[in-house]
Design brief:
270 residues, Arc Repressor Mutant, subunit A, single chain, 3 domains, Four Helix Bundle (Hemerythrin (Met), subunit A)
Length: 270
């Protein structure tokens, strides 16, 4: 096993030759009913090690897409092991194309299922990738920046579908609220505004102002002293020169008047 691992540093031609030899040995073993299970397992393991550089080359095609290279290699290696265990030479399929297809499929599945920060239907994910890849290929072919209309036309999409597919990419990753923008040292969560408790009372204050003008000056004064200055009825009576009973009656009448006025619909502004 250690001797095979050393071949990872060899040239690509040497690695490919080693891979072909391992495939031939596994083919021979699988075609014989006398091969022991332990020997088959050893040959599968040997094939996986020999094919690992190939799997890494497939993974390298998906670099710079938001997933660390080491993580891509892990997915590729697991997919390679699965392909080697499932490989059946009796079907007439060569191992290398079969393994490459399996590794590529698992990596794409990993991107689809585990790397999006927000759940996006597979149909929209594939459409987003198609628009992005076609934009890159058209830019290379034409030697200039291409518009979304051109990309949509080449893919047989409507402009609305292409626009949606392009915008879907914004859901791929989200910034943490605990992180800081590149031009600031303040965390995003610390820069967010807070709810103003007074905002919920704006409408009530506006309604109360409308109702208070329907009272006379004495009634407004009594209500102001009672509910804004938190004075008792006795203190109010002493200040305005009335009896406490009279103050109580005036307050009750004023509140009843306000309740009636509040139930009257306000005419819409012209």
């Amino acid at each position: 096993m250690s001797s095979l691992l050393n071949h990872h540093e060899d040239s690509r031609d040497e690695c490919d030759e080693q891979l072909r030899r391992c495939v031939r040995e596994l083919r021979t073993a699988l075609s014989s009913a006398e091969t022991a299970d332990a020997e088959r397992e050893r040959l599968v393991e040997q094939l996986c090690v020999a094919a690992l550089p190939m799997a890494y080359r497939v993974a390298a095609r998906y670099r710079n897409r938001g997933v660390p290279t080491g993580e891509l290699r892990q997915v590729a290696a697991l997919a390679l092991v699965g392909a080697a265990r499932r490989y059946d030479p009796c079907r007439g399929t060569d191992f290398v194309p079969y393994a490459v297809t399996s590794v590529r499929g698992e990596i794409r599945k990993y991107f689809r299922d585990f790397t999006w920060s927000t759940h996006v239907p597979r149909r929209l994910q594939e459409r987003h990738l198609a628009v992005r890849n076609r934009t890159e290929s058209l830019t290379t072919e034409l030697g200039r920046k291409v518009g979304l209309e051109e990309v949509a036309a080449s893919l047989g999409m409507t402009l609305e579908e292409a626009t949606e597919a392009e915008q879907i990419g914004e859901l791929y990753s989200c910034e943490s609220l605990d992180s800081s923008p590149s031009d600031s040292t303040v965390a995003r969560i610390d820069a967010l505004g807070e709810c103003d408790a007074g905002l919920s009372r704006v409408e009530h204050r506006h309604e109360l102002s409308r109702l208070m003008v329907t009272l006379d000056e004495r009634q407004r004064t009594l209500l102001w002293l009672r509910y804004f200055h938190q004075m008792s009825q006795s203190e109010i009576a002493e200040q305005v020169g009335l009896s406490q009973m009279h103050v109580s009656r005036l307050l009750r009448q004023s509140l009843e008047h306000l309740r009636k006025q509040a139930s009257v619909p306000v005419p819409a502004a012209a």
